[in-house]
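Please produce the structure of this protein holding calcium ion.
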Amino acid sequence: GRNTYAIFGSHMDELLQKRRRLEDDLREAVASGIQIQTFYQPVFSLDDGKVASFEALARWMHPRQGFISPEIFIPLAEEMGLIHEVGTLVLRDVCKLLFELPAIRVAINVSVLELSSPGYALRVIGTLAASHIDPNRLEIELTESLPVDKDGHFINNVASLRAAGVSFAIDDFGTGYASFSRVQTIDADRIKIDKSFVDDMDKADNKAIVMAIISMARAKGLKITAEGVETEAQRAALQKLGCDDLQGFLLSRPLSEAAVHLLVKGPERR
Ligand code: C2E
Ligand code: CA
Ligand code: CA
Ligand code: CA
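Below is the modeled complex.
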């Protein structure tokens, strides 16, 4: 009835206003740069248990609301056309870290929108060159959220980056558009098995899916990372099934830049 509509209407108004404020705040955060920070989650090799690489993860430290999850602000940045600026901020942090720690490799998350924009590959290659960083030390994780246009800038960007030495991983493998057809489209080097399959690996169904993914990936010569590993039982099962690398809270949470320095170099002597 009429009253219900009025209540619904004012609630919508409130939501819209909240959203507009968040959009304004994000525009400001991206422009100033300092509120957007980069954390790094170590990825461990199952062979020797050592850190194989780090995944760069964007963080938004909002001045009044505190930490806002990338699950919220990355999709917002994509809708607002700000994802390119966020990607630039993260890449700048990553290049600084790669320069300071010459032994490490880092993976960045890149949205289909960025990879579909003209000149993206050249910008990344230029940024790496300006910091004298070997492109082999950078991996791009392609997130699953959008379909790709196989003839446009996307394919050209991927080809240029691959030619320069940047490697590619399919993120959240097994969900959305992240499938073997996408592996073929970008000639990926690696798949990252989505956390949803790693959860409940003790259930026969999920274990069968993970086994099938791993054997197909092996047959295609792909490297395999399992993400979201939280329990010792999952770690043991994934090791048995033949994953290459593991990532998850069991092994390490995402770390600040300072913590990465400590982990890689050990405590500095004075
Ligand atoms: P993702 O690429 O799948 O990243 C893994 C997410 O899982 C991260 O969340 C990480 O903190 C979390 N995680 C890792 N291990 C565990 C675990 O054992 N248990 C649980 N419950 N979670 C775990 P985060 O940092 O909140 O990032 C969320 C998503 O936001 C990322 O998912 C990625 O798709 C996106 N994202 C983050 N940074 C960037 C960025 O710089 N650019 C773009 N385009 N997307 C980004
Ligand atoms: Ca990722
Ligand atoms: Ca993922
Ligand atoms: Ca994800």
